Amino acid sequence: MTTSNNKLNVTDLDFEQIKSNLKSFLSNQSVLSSYDFSASALNQILNVLSYNTHYNAYYMNMLANEMFLDTASIRSSVSSKAKMLNYTPRSMQGSRAQILVNVTPVDNPENFVVDKYTKFESVKNGKSYTFCTTDSITMSRSSAGNYSSVMDVKEGYPTTFTYTKNSTDPEQKFIIPNSNVDISTIEVTVKPSENDFTYSIFEKVGDFTDLKPTSNVYFCSETTNGRYEIEFGDGNVSRGLSDGNLVIIKCLICNGQESNGSFVFNPLDAVGGYTNVTLATISPSFGGSERESIESVKFNAPKTYAAQKRAVTAEDYQALVYQNFPDADSVQSWGGEEELDPVYGRVYIVVKPKTGDFLTSAQRSAITRLLNERKMMSITPVIVDPVIFNIVPEIIVKYDSVKSLVGSAEIGSLVKQTVVDYDNSSLKMFGRNFKYSNLLNLVSQSEDSITNVLMNIKTYTTFTPSYSLSTTYTFKLNNEINHPFSGYQGSIDSSAFTYSDSFGTLYDSCRIDDLDGVLRIYRMVGQTKIIVRTNIGTVNYSTGLITLSAFLPNSAVGNVVSIHIQPKFQDLVPVREQILKILERDIIITTIDVNALERRSEVSDPSLTTQVTSTGASY
Fold this sequence. Notes:
Helices cover about 20% and strands about 35% of the residues. Helix 7 (about 410-425) packs antiparallel against helix 8. The protein is α+β, with helices and mostly antiparallel strands and about 625 residues long. Strands 7-13-9-10-11-12-8 form a seven-stranded mixed β-sheet, with helices on one face. Strands 19, 20, 22, 29, 30, 31 and 32 form a seven-stranded mixed β-sheet that branches.
């Protein structure tokens, strides 16, 4: 927008607008009122001025963005804003494992001590990883004369960094010079001087309100180069350092998630001074992670600040798990009063780990210990498993071969990859809805020759039944189930299993179906449906609640039964512990060449048949 007076308009920031404003301003000056700017040297000067103004405007806009946590994109800016919320971005963390250590001493002592940082080795994919004990352990002789102990070990190589306090250097910083440090393993000791044998142990700061001028604590924060800095008090807020003090920082330098899944261990050091050692793995290593991403810091910092290191609200539990459990890929929490049958005094937490869909027993125990330390006395945290509903998209893709440089199979592969990418980016997490129109639009854009896409979806969940005890199973889709009219069959189906009728006769290939809200078990004889059990449960089409009562199969393929559901609407909304996902094997694609169809209608030629390619496996 240009001006018609002698004032320069400074509200426009695009290059062409800036240049136009400068021209307008100069034209309104009496000296240059009739000057032709379009083909002159002054035009080049205006270009330089416009570019300079545009660059400065862009720079100032980016600079302003870095001042706020929500809009910052540079890691140093994000970590600086997180520091103001007393949040330290999670460092790289080494994986943890449990091993059973058996030692055979030659001198048969009553007991002996295994030092902290006793090293063990595990080789994975040809690479060696060092694991260390996390505490010193006393091994005592059992009544049978054995020396055996379960030990927690953590991946990482123990490293020590030493600094001397120099009061004449106001810029001195105690920075750990390795970005692979696991800050959860940092130990800080301070000696009065290099030659002094006494020392003080400094702990990581906890509750700020408990600090005194004599408190031996240190502060840890991420610096501008992505490394971590250790800071001390000033003598008013915790103990400060004196000139000549020797600062000793010991920590583990780790490999992050690379070492996850290590399960064969060998001793590198003598265990308690003895070398006759045998090891057995109780739980393979888990929990190794890379340092926290920028997006994760921006998400977790304000929530952790709101939680204030205590667990009161359901959101506090979620924030604590995200901050302290790097294996968590997605976390959901809710109060027991939100359950279908309210249970007061409970908070439910569900965690999807980064590897797999369910927590291991070791991971579950680690989270339970964490939450029990922070919970209110009257509240019981309960960890539950995710409920997975797999979506089965049946896609018909019509394309014009004249406009395409690839064949039917390649188009099918492109469409399948589009669905897989949608699953990875838009599903697989708690609270992520399946949006039919979004996926349909993405599939339509998979290849330029695609002219039309038709898609229908179904969903299913799986469970492992008991073969010895009649059990009731409940499945909560929390979305309406399709039942268009009375007598309609096809809303519910299942995978095959073996079941006996009321007379005890056992039949193979039995399945579940529904009829007006009642679940039945049937088998097929040719094209005839034979009912094996007339009432095995109920289905509520409005709420999506399926109840399988007193279910006792004899066997099932893979020991798993799948319950297939036809939803009423194509969009699906997960609730609480539910996760929606699409398995690649469940994607069913049919490709049709519309050009071949048109030619077939014009010429009766058997060679011009419809080109149909199907990929995917039925569920």
